[in-house]
Design brief:
The protein has 500 residues and is of the alpha/beta class. Helices cover 34% and strands 16% of the residues. It has three domains: 264 residues, 3-Layer(bba) Sandwich (FAD/NAD(P)-binding domain), CATH 3.50.50; 102 residues, Succinate dehydrogenase/fumarate reductase flavoprotein, catalytic domain (Flavocytochrome C3, Chain A, domain 1, Alpha-Beta Complex); 100 residues, Fumarate reductase/succinate dehydrogenase flavoprotein-like, C-terminal domain (Methane Monooxygenase Hydroxylase, Chain G, domain 1), CATH 1.20.58. It contains 15 helices and 19 strands. Helix 1 links the parallel strand 1 and strand 2. The longest helix has 19 residues. Bound molecules: flavin-adenine dinucleotide.
C-alpha cells in the first residue's frame, strides 16, 4: 500500500530526476519502466546543453537566438527565465559529478550548433546526455527522499476534478500528493525517428484523458541528419558535426546549402526542408566531414565514429548518409511558469510539457536546459500546496498494452516535414478509425490524431510546421490549444462532412 504523502514523478529522464531531486525533502516516487537512462532521450543526447557561459557571450544573446529560432511563438518571459538559469544548471550538474569537457586550465570547452550566434554548447564528448544522466541518476539514488519503482503509468485517476493518483499497467492505482509527468517526446509515432521506441506521447495522452489543455501539438521538429542506414530508431549525427564545419552534399558532391543564409548552420527546420527537397527530387544526401574534420573526427566525435564504423562508414574518409527524422516535440501539455497543467494536482516537465520556451522551433541544445531547470519551479509550487487527505482508490481494469506501429505510416505520411490539407484530413480519418477499432493502437492513435488535427487547423507555415497549401506566416503568431474532446469533435466533424 502506498501513502498519499508522496509526489509521483512519471519518467526517469533528466526532467523527472531533476524534479525529484528538487522536491527534497518531500517523499518522491519515480516511476520508470526500465532502469532510468536506458529508455530516456536524455541519455541519448550527443550535442550538449546550451548555456551563456563564454567570455564573448551573455544571456541576452542566448535569449535573442532562442526567440529567433522560435519564430514568434516563444514566450519571452519564459525564455528569459530558462536561459538565465543555464549557467547555474551547469554548475549544479557539475556538482552532481557530471564530467564536462574542459581545457587545460579547467575552463569548459564550448561547442557551436546551428542558429547559435556564439559557442555555448557545454558537452561531454559526444555522449553528453549519457554523462549527465549518469551523474543525476547517482545523485537521485543517493537521495533519501527518492524511491524508484520499475513500473509504467497508464492513466491518471481523478477525485473531484483533481489528480489523486496514477493507474499502473496492471491496473493498480497509486495515490499521490501530486503527479509530475516527465514522460518525454512523441518521435516514436513516426516511421523515421531518433527517439526511443517508448516515446510516443504517453504522458500527453494521460493528461489529455484527464481533461488537460494541450498546446502547439503540431510543432514537431525534424532533425536533418539522422544516419540513414535502415536502423529504427535512427542514430543521430549531431548538429555539432555541422558546427565543426561539415557540409551537406548530394551524391554528385553538390553542396546544396552553400548559397543559403547561414548555409548548413541555418535553423533546423530550414535545413530539414532543404534535405527533404533533395530527397524528394530523387537525390541522396550526405554529411561530409572529410575537409572540416578528417582524421580529427574520431577524437571530437568518438561515439558517432563508433556508430558509423559499425555501419561500415569511416566519417574521416567517407560522406555519411543522412535524412530527416522526427526528433523533438515543441508542443505538449500546456503549463504555466510553475509547470502546472490546467488540471489541479497535475504538473509536467521536460519534453512532454509545452512551456513556450521553444516556440515553433527549438534552438539546438535548449531542451536539456529546459529538462534540467523545469523541476525547480514545480517543486516550489508543490511545496506550497497542502497534501490531500488520504483516499482509498480502487484498482481499474488493466488498459491494453499500447502499440504505436499502425500509427507510424499514417502520421509520417501526413504530419512530416511538409504537410497539406488533404493528407492531414485523410490521416485524421484513419487515426480516428484506429482509435475506435484497434484497442492496442488506440492510445498512440489518439496522440497522432491530436497532432494531425492541430496541424490541419494551423493555416500557415511557421517554424517546424510547413504547409505546402499555406506557405506564408499568418500576420499574428498564435498558440494552438486543444483538448482531447475538442480534437475528437473536429475529427468526427471532418469524417462526417466527407461521408455526407
Ligand atoms: C538522439 C537524441 C539526441 C539529442 N540530443 C540533444 C542535445 O544534444 N541537447 C539537447 O538539449 N537535447 C537533445 N535531445 C533532446 C533531449 O534529449 C530531450 O528533449 C530531453 O532529454 C527530454 O528529457 P525528458 O526527461 O523530458 O524525457 P526523456 O529523457 O525521454 O525521459 C522520459 C522518461 O519517461 C519514461 N516514461 C515514458 N512514459 C512513461 C510511463 N507511462 N510510465 C513511466 N515512465 C514513462 C521513459 O521510459 C523515459 O525514461 C536529443 C534527443 C535525442 C532523441
Amino acid at each position: 500500500m502506498h501513502d498519499t504523502s508522496s509526489v509521483l514523478v512519471i519518467g526517469g529522464g533528466l526532467a523527472g530526476l531533476s524534479t525529484a531531486l528538487a522536491l527534497a525533502p518531500l517523499p518522491v516516487i519515480v516511476l520508470n519502466p526500465a532502469s532510468p537512462g536506458r529508455d530516456a532521450a536524455s541519455g541519448w543526447a550527443q550535442g550538449g546543453i546550451a548555456a551563456a557561459i563564454g567570455a564573448d557571450d551573455d544571456v541576452a544573446l542566448h535569449v535573442a537566438d532562442t526567440l529567433a529560432a522560435g519564430d514568434g511563438l516563444c514566450n519571452p518571459d519564459v525564455v528569459a527565465r530558462f536561459i538565465a538559469g543555464g549557467p547555474d544548471l551547469i554548475a549544479r550538474l557539475a556538482g552532481f559529478g557530471a564530467r564536462f569537457d574542459r581545457d587545460g586550465a579547467g575552463a569548459l570547452r564550448l561547442g557551436l550548433e546551428a542558429a547559435h550566434s556564439r559557442r555555448r554548447i557545454v558537452h561531454a564528448g559526444d555522449a553528453t546526455g549519457h554523462e549527465v544522466l549518469r551523474a543525476v541518476h547517482e545523485a537521485a539514488r543517493a537521495a533519501p527522499h527518492i524511491r524508484f519503482l520499475a513500473a509504467e503509468a497508464r492513466r491518471l485517476v481523478l477525485h473531484r476534478g483533481a489528480v489523486a493518483g496514477v493507474a499502473l499497467a496492471d491496473g493498480e492505482v497509486m495515490p499521490a500528493r501530486a503527479v509530475v509527468l516527465a514522460t518525454g517526446g512523441i518521435g516514436g509515432l513516426y516511421a523515421h525517428t531518433t527517439n526511443p521506441r517508448g516515446a510516443w506521447g504517453q504522458g500527453i495522452l494521460m493528461a489529455a484523458r484527464a481533461g488537460a489543455v494541450l498546446a502547439d501539438m503540431e510543432f514537431v521538429q525534424f532533425h536533418p541528419t539522422a544516419l540513414d542506414i535502415g536502423r529504427d530508431p535512427m542514430p543521430l549525427i549531431s548538429e555539432a558535426v555541422r558546427g565543426e564545419g561539415a557540409w551537406l552534399i548530394d551524391e554528385t558532391g553538390n553542396r546544396f546549402m552553400a548559397s543559403s543564409a547561414q548555409a548548413e548552420l541555418a535553423p533546423r527546420d530550414v535545413v530539414a526542408r532543404a534535405v527533404w527537397a533533395q530527397l524528394s527530387a530523387g537525390h541522396r544526401v550526405f554529411l561530409d566531414a572529410r575537409t572540416a574534420l578528417g582524421a580529427r573526427f574520431a577524437t571530437r566525435f568518438p561515439a558517432i565514429t563508433e556508430i558509423c564504423r559499425a555501419a561500415g562508414i569511416d566519417p574521416a574518409t567517407q560522406p555519411i548518409p543522412v535524412r530527416p527524422a522526427a526528433h523533438f516535440h515543441m508542443g505538449g501539455i500546456a503549463v504555466d511558469g510553475a509547470g502546472r497543467s490546467t488540471v489541479p494536482g497535475l504538473y509536467a516537465a521536460g519534453e512532454c510539457a509545452a512551456t513556450f520556451l521553444h516556440g515553433a522551433n527549438r534552438l539546438a541544445s535548449n531542451s536539456l536546459l529546459e529538462a534540467g531547470i523545469a523541476g525547480l519551479g514545480i517543486a516550489a509550487a508543490i511545496r506550497a500546496n497542502p497534501p490531500p487527505t488520504a483516499l482509498a482508490l480502487p484498482a481499474i481494469p488493466a488498459p491494453a498494452t499500447p502499440d504505436p506501429a499502425p500509427v507510424r505510416p499514417i502520421i509520417s505520411a501526413a504530419a512530416g516535414v511538409l504537410r497539406n490539407r488533404d493528407d492531414l484530413r485523410d490521416a485524421i480519418a484513419a487515426l480516428l478509425d484506429l482509435a475506435e477499432t484497434n484497442q492496442a493502437a488506440a492510445d498512440p492513435a489518439l496522440v497522432g490524431l491530436i497532432i494531425a488535427t492541430a496541424a490541419f487547423s494551423r493555416h500557415e507555415s511557421r517554424g517546424a510546421h510547413a504547409r505546402t497549401d499555406f506557405p506564408e506566416r499568418a500576420p499574428t503568431p498564435q498558440h494552438s490549444r486543444l483538448t482531447l474532446v475538442r480534437a475528437l469533435n473536429v475529427a468526427r466533424g471532418l469524417v462526417g462532412a466527407r461521408a455526407a
